[in-house]
Structure formats: structure tokens, C-alpha cells
Amino acid sequence: MIDVYDELIVPHLQRMSNLEKFSLNLAICGKNTFVDGNELKQNIINYMPQLKRFEFYICSHLYLSNQINLPSKEDIQHTFRDFKDDQIISYIDYFQKEQYSLCHIYSYSFKLKYYYTITNNFPGGLFKYVHELLFYDERPFEHEFFLQIAQSFPFIKNLSIKNSKPQNNKLCKESKNDNQDFSIIKFPHLINLTLNLAHDNYIEELLFDTRTCLPNNVVHLNIFYHQLKRVTHHFTRDTTRINCAKLNSLCLGGRRLPKYAKDYFPHV
Fold this sequence. Notes:
The chain is α/β, with parallel strands linked by helices. It has helices spanning 4-14, 37-43, 73-78, 143-152, 200-207, 225-231, 238-246, and strands at residues 21-29, 53-63, 88-95, 100-107, 132-136, 158-163, 185-186, 192-198, 212-213, 220-222, 249-251. The strands form three sheets. The protein has a five-stranded parallel beta sheet, covered by helices on one side. The chain has a four-stranded mixed beta sheet with strand order 1-2-4-3. Helix 2 (37-43) links the parallel strand 1 (21-29) and strand 2 (53-63).
């Protein structure tokens, strides 16, 4: 396999030696190692003597089948010990079932527009410019995770979930505070929601009005018909009625809504 990063991207970057400010956003698949601070210094920074500002987000995708010594988060973070201008964030996800891993490295000052694959290891932060997210993990996403994401990505428009693991804490914990909205998830700018690869628990998480408040009449939902029918109890369930009534359109994997269900989705 040709390593596109080493063979094509790096030589191209090295020719831009006169840059004073440089922003780099990459998702890389096919390398034998994660991109880390040492590699950025060796292949990019050392070739740009005029560089004053370097902002980056890089997600490396690594298959585990031939890996013996896998680096830890601390190993990766240590390679940025000489990066003094920015707060550098790094973390690693290992997916044993799928036999691959992801390593995220980024300067927190970078105005990210796309964050590649959110997992339970997401460390938080505020990302005002990211409008599209994919959630994926082999561990369950609990309610607190969704709350954190809503706070970290306040302007999210497109959200997809790929996770077959059921939640451990299915029922939301009631807030001890008198403000019952404390634990409600809010995605006020959401327009596209894809749940056809999500466990029923996450469909409930986003369609129960006691857990999530969807915006009115703008959200398009991608979901298989049998999932939606099951979660809504044949389009009769009260806890999903309010958010389903807010949906603007549906894609049901080629199926159509039965006539008796159309009142459940008055704006679809």
C-alpha cells in the first residue's frame, strides 16, 4: 500500500517553506504509525523556518493486525513537549472488535470545521465551527456523554451515530435541582440526524422529549422503518410523540409511513 501521507502530502508541504502561518486538517489512513509531534517537527516544521503560527488537527487511522508495541496517550503527548505556543490535545482509541485504532492530535486554538469520529474518550472543549459529527464506539454512550457533546459543539447541524452497544444507565438520573431542564440535551441548530446504525437506546435518547429537545420542523431523520416502529411502539408512544411531531422529513430505508402513523408526524 502506498503511504499517501509520506509519498505525496509531506513533500508538498515541505515546498511551502516561506509560510508564516499554516493550518492543517487531515484524516490519514494507511500509515504504519500514528502521526505525532516528532513527525510534525521532522517533516513539516523543520522545513518552514519562517513559520510563526502552526495550527493543526490530524486523525490517524491505524489497523491493529500487525501492531505489537502500541503507543499510549502519554507516549503521543510526550512528543509535543517542545510545542510551546499552543495547548496540544492528544488521545487514542483502540477498537478491538474492528481491529483498528484512531489517534487524534490537535492544537486547541485551531478553528476546526470537521472533527473526525467522536468517542467516549473525547476530552471536551468548545468547538464553535464544527457542524458535522459522527459518534462511534464499542462502548456505550451514556446520557452525560450527549450532554457534553451538546455543550462542546453548540452549532452542530449533522449528527450520525454508529454504536450497537446498549446503555448501562438507560434511565436518566433525575436532577436534584429544581430546574428540570438541567439534564435535557439541546441541539438547537440540528437539521440532519442519522440513526440507522444506532442501538435503540440512542434512538430513545434523541427522540424522548424527557431527554432531548429537538428544534421545530427542521430535522431530517434517517432511520430504518422497523427501528422507528419499534422505538415508538407502533407510533403510539407518548414519550417520543413530541419530538416526532417536530420532524420535518424522514428517510426510512425505502419504506413509507403507514396512513395510521401520519398524525404522529404532522410535519413530515
